[in-house]
């Protein structure tokens, strides 16, 4: 059964085979996508026609590479901006939530905590449409009543940010709460006894302790936002994010330029993942 | 001291309340209200159950709804079956030297956007895809077959995109398990099957519940994978919602569908929690 017990050879061999097959299954689509980004062909398929960087660098007229493709470059920039604001907002509010639920006592705390967890179990599509409906109703209300036309209430950049923030904040809340639970309260008490104010305690003692969780959850929040599709789909305005833009391209037929974008995404997210892992490992070691 | 304490409460409470009220509570009330409204013959907005009646009368909506629910459950079970051996191997079988490396390798693909992963499967499976090319050029097959756009490819895609959310809770549940429990059972003569069902499964139950809840919810609310990998005739319920919102522009009907999907997912998650006697907070963290 397990490594300390004697096991028949057939058991361990077949188990290892299964694991190898599983990892092949896991990586096959990504590896193929990356390889075909460099195929000198007009379609993302075999046969292999030779190595080429055309899908990154070509500047027309037959092929336009990623670095000259205005629409994809713009959507990458929009996604990065969105993810930046979403992670700032989520880390701020999520951390405040963690302090609220871990360190404060008030009536209705359990109910509010339950409410704060629900965004993670509400399907993203539902979050998207309910926010769209509300923004739209509010927009109509302001226009009828005050003759105001508020940009924020139409499908737009900031509506996407709000929609993604609404559930990513819960994720940050959970990560920071878990770290805050491990915090030794006597450190805070000592500082308070020595005359520090609560604000000083949080700034000089609690926040430095939380830093690994803040950085880690901020990075994951960035990624979650960068890749979000379901919620964004209903809230997106004229500024399309990368996943939406890619989706439209995949739906309407594919060119290897999608592979080129995918290759960049795979390489950069893996790098970010490894960095995040090293940082959080070091944080736990403290 | 007392006033200080309350000030802190106020500072922390305000943003959290704003977030939950404005972005979660109010929008979902609005969703419910919109789903209960319609237009009468004069084009005026009125309260009505017509949107829900429409759902129950039109067979296609019903059918899609039930189909989506059953398929999401199937995906959850399949994901468990595929990932449990992997979690067990990493935590209990392989030498501890490799288990860290295998775990990192396991998490890697899930950092990449779901769209990229689905796209990868599309260029592998489609008629002009890589697998067909390899099979035909190696002489195993005479002509390429369409392997994409059917229910099996869709299920596989859904399992693939949600595996992470099952395997991580399973690994952390099994990691906490003391090996001596299994050794003791083995020494006392229990068969591997008995050990599996009487010791390992009960021990991993909390991990199984949290994994299943998240996988189920993600499969139910998925739009991309069914849309890109499923067949033309196999609608997913989220596609119905999208059609009502974007194509037909019938937001009241779409809101009703959305609310039904929300109700379905809440009921099944609640049921799963009751069945395994867990709380939402524990299951998520």
UniProtKB/TrEMBL annotation, chain A:
Similarity-based family: Belongs to the binding-protein-dependent transport system permease family. CysTW subfamily.
Coiled coil: none
Phylogenetic lineage: Bacteria, Pseudomonadati, Thermodesulfobacteriota, Desulfobulbia, Desulfobulbales
Entry-linked SUPFAM superfamilies: MetI-like (SSF161098)
Source organism per UniProt: Desulfopila aestuarii DSM 18488
Transmembrane spans: 12-38, 82-101, 113-135, 155-176, 208-226, 257-279
Domain ABC transmembrane type-1: 76-276
Keyword Transmembrane carried by entry: yes
Key words of the record: Cell membrane, Membrane, Transmembrane, Transmembrane helix, Transport
Keyword Transport: yes
Membrane topology: Multi-pass membrane protein
Compartments, as annotated in UniProt: Cell membrane
Protein name: Spermidine/putrescine transport system permease protein
UniProtKB/TrEMBL annotation, chain B:
Domain of life: Bacteria
ABC transmembrane type-1 domain residues: 65-272
Entry's Gene Ontology BP terms: transmembrane transport
Membrane topology per record: Multi-pass membrane protein
GO cellular component, one term: plasma membrane
Pfam families in the record: BPD_transp_1 (PF00528)
Subcellular location: Cell membrane
SUPFAM superfamilies, alphabetized: MetI-like
Membrane-spanning segments: 7-26, 69-90, 102-124, 152-174, 195-220, 254-273
Primary location: membrane
Alphabetical UniProt keywords: Cell membrane, Membrane, Transmembrane, Transmembrane helix, Transport
Family to which the UniProt record says this protein belongs: Belongs to the binding-protein-dependent transport system permease family. CysTW subfamily.
Protein known as: Spermidine/putrescine transport system permease protein
Taxonomy of the source species: Bacteria, Pseudomonadati, Thermodesulfobacteriota, Desulfobulbia, Desulfobulbales
